[in-house]
Design a protein that fits this description.
The complex is a heterodimer of chains A (115) and B (195). Chain A has 115 residues and is an all-alpha fold. In chain A, 65% of the residues lie in helices and 0% in strands. Chain B has a 3-stranded antiparallel sheet with strand order 1-3-2. The chains are: A mainly alpha (115), B mainly alpha (195).
């Protein structure tokens, strides 16, 4: 029961997670398609049933989240274990703060300018 | 600092950023709504800041300066790779950081690119230098957005690399953004005022 419940809980978390703040310039249609294939063809009956409620926004947001992290082929390889895909998506930070990275970049450039 | 001053400060910062994106959109050679939407993204703002600082520090006209910058960049990545607490705070993982490290050969190529017939940074080098900001895939897309909008050119070399050459507009608009903030943000803290 637990193993059947967990993917559904993960899917529910993905559905209700705040997605408005995703930093994504454009979704990759191939990645979005691959995600749709994995969820709609899931052998797990609970995931397959839940996938009927998933709309385009869900796939676009998940595609944005996984963009740069997984290729479409890598997503399709998880066809037999979509719960792993859910785990991976949940483990990714929703949004990174770029301010720290920008400060480090500035310091590195300052070092360069000293030459 | 009064509440009114704080509110005006926030308003000035927000207006300046909106104006930055508005300027990009107005200057864009493509008025497709999707393109304009992409130009208003945070990642475009961040890459513009990167380009602005490259120019402000004059890092792409002097190979030795570029080398010093890259070495400092490598040292930062190395430190993050060795310090889990720091990189977790930034949400960065080791494989991603390792992709941003320049090898000795890549540093020499980066310097040589500045002296070539098509001077500029290789796109792969831009992706390495911005690895803490974007994944390589996202970095590529932001570069492509700026190219499609007419703000940068990507020149293919005989060695199958792409040299990124900025036309300077994104940097100008970013400089204008900073000037607007300086002009509009209310007076800085008076000597008697404390944080």
């Amino acid at each position: 029961m637990t193993s059947k419940l967990f993917p559904a809980i993960g899917l529910l978390c993905l559905l209700t997670a705040p997605t408005a703040s995703l930093a994504c310039d454009a979704t990759d249609p191939a990645l979005t398609d691959a995600l749709r294939q994995v969820f709609t063809a899931a052998k797990d009956p609970m995931i397959a049933e839940w996938s009927t409620y998933l709309n385009q926004k869900f796939y676009d947001d998940l595609s944005c989240k996984l963009s740069g992290e997984m290729t479409p082929d890598e997503v399709l390889k998880m066809r037999k274990a979509p719960s792993g895909l859910i785990d991976h998506a949940l483990s990714l930070p929703t949004r990174r703060n770029q301010s720290d990275a920008l400060m480090l970049m500035l310091y590195a450039m300052q070092e360069g300018a000293k030459t | 600092m009064t509440q009114d001053t704080d509110i005006r400060t926030v308003e000035s910062l927000r207006r300046a950023k909106t104006d930055f994106h508005n300027n990009l959109c107005l200057a864009c050679k493509d008025d497709d709504p999707m393109m304009l939407q992409k130009l208003r993204s945070e990642n475009v703002f961040v890459l513009s800041e990167f380009l602005f600082l490259l120019r402000a520090f004059d890092l792409t006209t002097h190979p030795d300066r570029l080398e010093a910058y890259i070495l400092a960049h490598n040292a930062q990545l190395s430190d993050l790779i060795k310090t889990p607490e720091k990189r977790r705070l930034m949400g960065l993982e080791v494989p991603r950081l390792e992709r941003g490290v320049f090898s000795a050969l890549q540093i020499q190529k980066a310097k040589a690119n500045l002296l070539s017939a098509t001077p500029g940074l290789d796109q792969a080098d831009v992706q390495r230098l911005t690895i803490m900001l974007f994944s390589p895939e996202t970095g590529r897309r932001v570069i492509e957005t700026l190219e499609a909008a007419g703000f940068i050119d990507r020149v293919m070399t005989p060695y199958q690399s792409k040299i990124v050459q900025s036309r300077g507009q994104a940097e100008d608009f970013f400089g204008r953004y900073l000037a607007q903030i300086r002009a509009e943000v209310p007076n800085p803290l008076s000597p008697k005022e404390t944080l």
